[in-house]
């Protein structure tokens, strides 16, 4: 059984998937999202969930630096609730503070062009969210 990691934004959702042992996270893709339909799960995301033997979903929770939850965090929690209603899978929220910044730095250090970074940044953030969760379970 695999764990799915999501970096939920208003326009895109970065998607990562664990290996069957739950040790490593691999980036899958970035799923486009309709900004006007924030209460809809994209069909492609449901295809990924159904087609990959997913047993749990980890959703990044963007907290403020002081630990409080702002509008982005509330939107991610609402999306997580929506996924939970449609899949019956356990949903785990995971603190994602600075994951996008860390993903951006990693891509810059790998000399990835700005244009290419934009295409993969959400997927990389999903990998970092999921890997952080998986690492916490190993310890």
TrEMBL record:
Enzyme kind, highest EC tier: hydrolase
Alphabetical list of SMART domains matching this protein: YqgFc
Enzyme Commission code(s) on record: 3.1.-.-
GO biological process: rRNA 5'-end processing
Keywords: Cytoplasm, Hydrolase, Nuclease, Ribosome biogenesis
Gene Ontology cellular-component annotations: cytosol
Major location category of this protein: cytoplasm
InterPro entries the record matches: RNaseH-like_sf, YqgF, YqgF/RNaseH-like_dom, YqgF/RNaseH-like_dom_sf
HAMAP family, per database record: Nuclease_YqgF
Annotated family: Belongs to the YqgF HJR family.
Summary of the function given for this chain in its UniProt record: Could be a nuclease involved in processing of the 5'-end of pre-16S rRNA.
Entry protein name: Putative pre-16S rRNA nuclease
């Amino acid at each position: 059984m695999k764990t799915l990691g999501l970096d939920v934004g208003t326009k895109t959702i970065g998607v990562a998937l664990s290996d069957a042992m739950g040790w490593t996270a691999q980036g899958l893709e970035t799923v486009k999202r309709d900004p006007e339909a924030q209460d809809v799960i994209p069909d492609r995301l449901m295809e990924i969930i159904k087609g990959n033997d997913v047993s749990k979903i980890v959703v990044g929770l963007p907290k403020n630096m002081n630990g409080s939850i702002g509008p982005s965090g509330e939107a991610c929690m609402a999306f997580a609730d929506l996924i939970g209603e449609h899949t019956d899978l356990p949903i785990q929220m995971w603190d994602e503070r600075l994951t996008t910044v860390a993903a951006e730095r990693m891509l810059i250090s790998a000399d990835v062009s700005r244009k290419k970074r934009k295409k993969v940044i959400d997927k990389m953030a999903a990998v970092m969210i999921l890997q952080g969760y998986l690492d916490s379970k190993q310890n």
